[in-house]
Amino acid sequence: MAVVIPVFNERDSLPLVVAAIPATAGLEVVVVDNGSTDGTADVARRLRTGVPIRVVREGRKGYGSACLAGVAALEARPPDVIVFLDGDFSDHPEEMPRLLEAIEAGAELVIGSRTLGRAEPGALLPQARLGNAFACALIRLLYGHRYTDLGPFRAIRRDAYERLGMEDRGFGWTCEMQVKALRAGLRVAEVPVSYRRRVGVSKITGTVSGTLGAGWKILWTIFRSRARFGRGFRPGPNPPRP
Q1: Which pLDDT does position 206 carry in this prediction?
Q2: Of 139, 221, 208, which is closest to residue 172 (Cα–Cα)?
Q3: Which of 205, 145, 220 has its CA nearest to residue 178?
């Protein structure tokens, strides 16, 4: 199993994230530095933990670019399961077993749902809650599948990931994975996860431009993918939520 952590100026939070990842036999952590200017990559290289940490640099800016680079770094020894986790310490890495249990139960893609779990007051800003709810409602309308979150904390089987043809290099990456999973007929599930206020300021919902840019990209991804599916699209079977 491998954990991919995309980071951009997360010097203070990254050590907390890595320290909270449950030690598992064969686990590898890939930290993808997406052009940090605060020494995040150096901090990552100096971390001493019980699991191997590899630092990858991705010069092309964008959340999706960092995630794609992290997966590409695993090609030499591809893991069975890839977990994606943000580097701002808003997620709870110690809850990773919840996602892996759903994978073991038969799911191919598992989304850690912040709306089904417990969020610390102020962790999910109003604009994030509204945008997330709207995007999920739109996916349900166009694709016939009910997601409750587009959160970054997720796990996917490697062979399932390869079937998706992921390509988005920006903030539409998480949404792209979820709608393409429906197109591919993957067995998808959601599990409740906790969420806290991040360390530092969000690059997305922390600014007006970031919020508008991410919202537009998510909507564009939903409509573009639906147009590609055609009228014959039918969502695949999904296991019940744990």
Answers
A1: 47
A2: 221
A3: 145
